[in-house]
């Protein structure tokens, strides 16, 4: 298994580099590497690795959903809340209806089997969509109207809704008694409990992090461990009560961000570095799950069914955005962002076959084909349309994030030590501002060239009589200033 892991890292990074050089999303290259190296093509990944791939993929998905939670600001969620609610169910319903209309005739399956297929295909893939939305949010693209936040939040709830419908249709196939309204009632219950089980540990973690000055890597590992426990709790409780564990994972980040933006940003940056490895595992192993031989059996008819479903889904997505302040181009971006399929299809595509559904083999073939067609095309479409449609102002907040990362600046509440004098200081205020770029030798350019700068105000802690009294000093850092770590080091207790 160790050799397979090294192979995934090397080949995945190489594919990521090649596709980025081609101006395409790197995850498309990772998916292709997974398909080619998986057990159904070249069989270069050890069977033991494939046996634990589900756990690896879940952990990787948890990492990116934690990052998503640490980017969800309450004011932005308020602005997109209603639209996100509509997008979490209407597009999936439209797609299921479209597939029910055409699949029985084209694939020669029953209407109930078509409904099961529609429920499988109706889920958007958070594994593909969330990383791309976070990339846009990190760079300030579309943040003015909250478009990436809208897609991110809606795609997470979309999966809960679709899986409940899938459970209903599978129950109807079994012929047993099933209360459809009770099952539909599980959707809001699952969402509410998922958020609740995330908010509570999120608040506890916030209290711990403010009381004890732990090092950022240890904070990050604690958050990750708690998030993994939430997904375990979801599985353990599913016999009695439904819990949307992945929503709980996002809620952890959200509540920490609400209570302490400084701590949230520190943990988010560490998760961003961890995501480099998690991304490789997620997309290569998702690709390795794809059986191209099964997908081939779906043929032209399966491709047409998927296409019709996407057309219906696109209409539903566009209608969900009626009444929002988005222009037609921004709505088109949301339509494209709702195309990729991968995670849910790989997870439940084979369930009908295992349950003895008559058309189970056909359903699995179309589900696999949908991953091959929509995951790479959707990712490319999101990248291309996002770069052209999502705007940000000239003075974007992203430039401050970029400056903070390069300088590795501390946040309010953190303690620092002077390398020259050994004195201990605490950051009590930070301010983002724009300054005029220092003039270079030679003729001055026309107009004022403004660059971002961050001002830090520090209070000397080691010799002051008490908080609010004693010596304070202010420092300013920009892209033309020396590094913060040339003169200071950040202190942690553990």
The helix count comes to: 19
Largest sheet data: 5 strands, antiparallel
- Return the string of H and E elements: HHHHHHHHHHHHHHHHHHHEEEEE
Morphology call: elongated
Number of strands: 5
Uncertain stretches: none
Sheet with the most strands: spatial strand order: 4-3-2-1-5
Number of folding domains?
A: 2
Helix content: 55-70%
CATH class of the largest domain: Mainly Alpha
Structural class: alpha+beta
**Average pLDDT rating:** 85
Task: Write a compact overview of the structure shown.
By secondary structure, the chain is α+β, with helices and mostly antiparallel strands.
Q: How would you characterize this protein structure?
A:
By secondary structure, this protein is of the alpha+beta class. The chain has 2 domains: 388 residues, Na+/H+ antiporter like fold (Up-down Bundle); 94 residues, no CATH class. The chain contains 19 helices and 5 strands. Strands 4-3-2-1-5 form a 5-stranded antiparallel sheet. Strand 1 and strand 2 form a beta hairpin. Helix 7 packs parallel to helix 18, helix 11 runs antiparallel to helix 12 and helix 11 packs across helix 13. The two termini are 33 Å apart. The model has no long low-confidence stretch (mean pLDDT 85).
């Amino acid at each position: 298994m160790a050799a397979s892991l090294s192979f995934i890292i090397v080949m995945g990074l190489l594919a990521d580099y090649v596709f980025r050089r081609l101006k395409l999303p790197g995850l498309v290259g990772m998916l292709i590497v997974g398909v080619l190296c998986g057990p159904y093509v070249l069989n270069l990944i050890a069977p033991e690795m494939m046996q634990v791939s589900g756990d690896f993929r879940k952990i990787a998905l948890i990492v990116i959903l934690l990052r998503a939670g640490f980017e969800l600001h309450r004011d932005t969620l308020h602005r997109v809340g209603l639209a996100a609610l509509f997008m979490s169910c209407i597009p999936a319903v439209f797609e299921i209806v479209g597939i029910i209309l055409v699949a029985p005739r084209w694939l020669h399956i029953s209407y109930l089997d078509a409904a099961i297929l529609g429920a499988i295909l109706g889920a958007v893939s958070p594994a593909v969509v969330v990383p791309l939305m976070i990339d846009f949010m990190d760079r300030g693209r579309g943040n003015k109207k909250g478009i990436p936040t809208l897609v991110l939040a809606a795609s997470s709830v979309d999966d809960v809704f679709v899986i409940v419908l899938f459970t209903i249709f599978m129950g109807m196939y079994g012929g047993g008694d099933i209360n459809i309204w009770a099952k539909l009632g599980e959707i809001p219950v699952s969402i509410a409990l998922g958020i609740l089980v995330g908010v509570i540990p999120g608040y506890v973690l916030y209290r711990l992090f403010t009381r004890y000055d732990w090092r950022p890597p240890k904070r990050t590992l604690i958050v990750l461990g708690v998030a993994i426990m939430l997904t375990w709790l979801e599985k353990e409780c599913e016999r009695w009560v439904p819990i949307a564990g992945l929503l709980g994972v996002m809620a952890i980040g959200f509540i920490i961000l609400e209570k302490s933006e400084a701590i949230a940003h520190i943990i988010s940056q560490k998760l961003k570095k961890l995501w480099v490895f998690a991304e490789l595992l997620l997309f290569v192993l998702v690709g390795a799950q794809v059986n191209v031989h099964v997908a081939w059996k779906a043929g032209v008819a399966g491709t047409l069914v998927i296409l019709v479903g996407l057309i219906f889904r696109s209409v539903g997505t566009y209608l969900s955005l009626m009444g929002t302040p988005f222009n037609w181009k921004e709505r088109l971006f949301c339509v494209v962002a709702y195309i990729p399929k991968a995670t849910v299809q790989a997870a439940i595509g084979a369930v009908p076959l295992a349950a003895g559904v008559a058309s189970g083999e056909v359903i699995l073939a179309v589900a696999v084909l949908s991953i091959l067609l929509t995951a790479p095309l959707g990712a490319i479409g999101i990248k291309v349309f996002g770069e052209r449609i999502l705007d940000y102002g000239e003075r974007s907040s992203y430039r401050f994030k970029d400056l903070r990362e390069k300088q590795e600046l501390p946040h309010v509440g953190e303690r620092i030590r002077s390398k020259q004098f050994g004195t201990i200081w605490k950051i009590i205020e930070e301010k983002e501002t724009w300054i005029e770029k220092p003039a270079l030798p030679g003729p001055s350019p026309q107009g004022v060239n403004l660059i971002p700068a961050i001002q830090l105000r520090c209070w000397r802690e080691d010799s002051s009589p008490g908080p609010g009294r004693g010596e304070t000093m202010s420092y300013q850092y920009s892209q033309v200033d020396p590094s913060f770590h040339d003169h200071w080091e950040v202190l942690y207790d553990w």
